[in-house]
Design a protein that fits this description.
The complex is a heterodimer of chains A (about 160) and B (about 100). Chain A has about 160 residues and is mainly α. Chain A contains six helices and four strands. Chain A has one domain. The chains are: A mainly alpha (about 160), B mainly alpha (about 100).
């Protein structure tokens, strides 16, 4: 069937579970669709989700990714996959300092301590966390789309979907 | 030498550091945006809406090609819808709190 035929011209192909694509999509945003043979779509998904995630870190600093202090924000951010866990690891182990008052605890450094760290506060903290959390939630949609994938049929260019 | 005096001398000997919040002190991706941006935080809604629209349309559209004439126009349209929706909700909340609620 030619690529530009309307979707209703033929029955939709059956949805099939694609575990490899789902794992790939969680490992790196957009990779699931690349595995499924849609490299341009995968690239666009990756650019959008990683742009949102790193945009959040750009706005609010690395402080917006904090599994210990902002657990519920991080629950959403974790949807981005290993990248979110890697950024959190770097924040906990390379940016924060040991907290002697809590056994095994770590805290943000004071302004005169090293490594120097600037705490993110106010609107910029909220917006940075929101950016990164929405990136995680959007990647969950991309993972689901890759996991239960129906190959798209190209529609005429006037239609929105 | 007292510990307080020693600490003072150590701090005095340290190289000067740009004031926190200035552009010179800012380290992108480690520090939050400079404090001057606090007054314009609402502008950050635009890239937020754009990236949401980009990611959503990349998943949702039946075809993303051609990117310039098919994908991007729909991304810009959805960006505008999100911004107008947020502004509309903000306006409605403002009217409710400032006009309607005091009369209840």
């Amino acid at each position: 069937m030619p690529d530009d035929q309307p979707a209703h011209a033929a029955p939709q192909p059956a949805e099939a579970l694609q575990p490899t694509a789902a794992i790939a999509a969680f490992a790196l945003p957009g990779l699931g669709h690349v595995v499924l043979g849609e490299p341009k779509r995968g690239l666009l998904i990756g650019v959008g989700i990683l742009g949102l995630f790193f945009g959040g870190i750009f706005v609010g600093g690395i402080d917006v990714i904090d599994r210990r202090e902002d657990f519920w924000w991080f629950a959403g951010q974790a949807g981005v996959g290993p990248i979110a866990f890697g950024v959190d690891w770097a924040h906990q182990n390379l940016i924060k300092v040991e907290d002697p008052s809590v056994p095994g605890g770590r805290r943000s450094a004071w302004p005169d301590e090293s490594p120097r760290a600037q705490k993110s506060l106010g609107r910029l903290n909220e917006l940075g966390a929101l950016y990164a959390t929405l990136a995680g939630l959007l990647n969950v949609i991309a993972v689901i789309d890759a996991a239960w994938h129906t190959p798209r049929r190209r529609r005429p260019h006037g239609s929105a979907r | 030498m007292s510990p307080a005096l020693a600490a003072t001398l150590v701090l005095a000997a340290a190289p000067p550091r740009p004031a926190a919040g200035s552009l010179l002190a800012w380290r992108p991706f480690l520090d939050p945006l400079p404090s001057a941006m606090h007054d314009y935080w609402w502008l950050l809604l635009v890239p937020l809406a754009f990236f949401i629209a980009w990611s959503y349309k990349a998943v949702r559209l039946a075809s993303v090609e051609p990117i310039v004439t098919h994908f991007l126009p729909r991304v810009f349209a959805m960006t505008a819808q999100i911004i107008l929706g947020v502004v509309g909700i903000g306006l409605a909340m403002y009217l409710f709190i400032e006009v309607v609620a005091p009369r209840l």
